[in-house]
Amino acid sequence: MGSSLGAADSDRSLLLNGVCYVLFAYDAARSIDLDAAERRIHEATQRQTIQHKRRAPSYLEYQPPPLRLSQEIQPIKIGEYSSHRMVDLVLYDFGAVSVIYRIPIQGPLAALLALSEDLYDNEILLTESRVRGEQIISAVGDAAINVHTASVVEDYVIFRIAALDPPTSPEAFCASHARDIARILRAERQSLSTQEIDDALSARTSFGTDDLTIIDWNAALLVDREGDDVQAVLEFANVELLEMRYLDQKLDRALSEAYETLSKRSWSLPRFLGYYSTDLRRVAELQVDNALLFEGVNNTLKLLGDQYLARVYRLVNRRFHLAEWDSSIIRKLQTLESIYEKIADQASTRRLEILEWVIILLIAFSILLEFIH
Questions:
Q1: Which residues 6+ apart lie within 8 Å of 16 measured at CB?
Q2: pLDDT 10s digits, 282-334
Q3: Closest Cα partner for 125 from 218, 220, 24, 217?
């Protein structure tokens, strides 16, 4: 009975009402001028179907606030459910785009397992979201700098439950339906072990007695009528994880390129006379580009001293292993700095060698002049 529900979890009398949010984050450009992008969107022909706002929630401080747009789409069929006719797009100044779909959910808890499985690596939504992201970047025009198509995508699902019928406290709901919740969060139809269930539900927190947030690596479950603040933290954390993964890949390529530069052994005249200036400039550009992106992502969101949201962010940080990504990126930035210093030392050594040869040639020339005279 690997796919059957436990006795406590098979109760279909519990009904829920809420919305499932499906997030797709992309790195689309080196940076985006949000003020210019807002003007371009406002002037675009599609302005009738796009709503936009720059205000960040009062409990969050973005520097600068992202640009959020709403676009009308044809509802997308996902199993037994259909998406809402509006899709949200969020542009960040460090070049990221987040595409957010809403799926109204109403019915028994067990039905969410099928939805969770349908959303896992959903090619239809993935393709549609990528097209949406490319279209909005095209619409903002030159407000997006160094536009590129990145292969990296970070998706996340937020099941947000506004009401339970019959009314049940979130803690009682979690205790009596732990097995179902764990399987929904991990999109697993087979029965999970006790250890796996405990791990899936370990990152949870509550502000009051009538709300509950459970955060896992693939999805989160919010039992909260007013969970906009927690959802905003989850949305940004998903974008942050994307940028960490993207930056890690960029640094791998930068290190490979810098190492090749360091390994060159060329005494050609252009290189001999150039003193490695081109190589040093290229490695320095790699350092600056990656360091600016790293700082831009890490300094975008401030939680304004809200202790509960800070606790939520710490849980997300732990689930997404953001601290480990930070450590890896800092280490690679330091390695890139080390390679830059080695190339600079190599260039300095070559300059000294050139100077020594110039001195030898001058001495030889002066001796030759003595013989001629």
A1: 105, 106, 107, 108, 109, 112, 161, 163, 164, 165
A2: 777 677 777 777 776 766 666 555 788 888 989 999 999 988 888 888 888 88
A3: 24
